[in-house]
Amino acid sequence: MKRFLAWAVLILGGLATFFRQSSKRHQAEAARHKERADQQSAVNETRNRIDNNLTELEQKQREQQEDEEERLAAGRRDHFDNNW
């Protein structure tokens, strides 16, 4: 009977250790997945910010080009204009 109890305690202790380590492993894996998701989110936010800035810059340059063309078409030139 004592042998049976010793084996039972040993087996239960091994199972408890296995499940505890398994739980820790799952927690670590979940933390890695969360970290990857956070990194991907930061990358996406950066890309969106870059795209928005490029769109704004293109629009600003287009407006400046249109203004310059209108100014030149109207004959208004300044001392910085070398395109006579």
Please describe the structure with a list of short key phrases separated by commas or semicolons.
mainly alpha, 84 residues, 1 helix
Fold and architecture overview:
The chain has one helix and no strands. The protein has 84 residues and is mainly α.
Helix content: over 70%
CA gyration radius, whole angstroms: 35 Å
Number of strands: 0
Largest sheet: none
Briefly say what this structure is:
This protein is mainly α and 84 residues long. The protein is built from one helix and no strands.
List the helices and strands and how they pair.
Elements (H helix, E strand, L loop, with lengths): L1 H72 L11
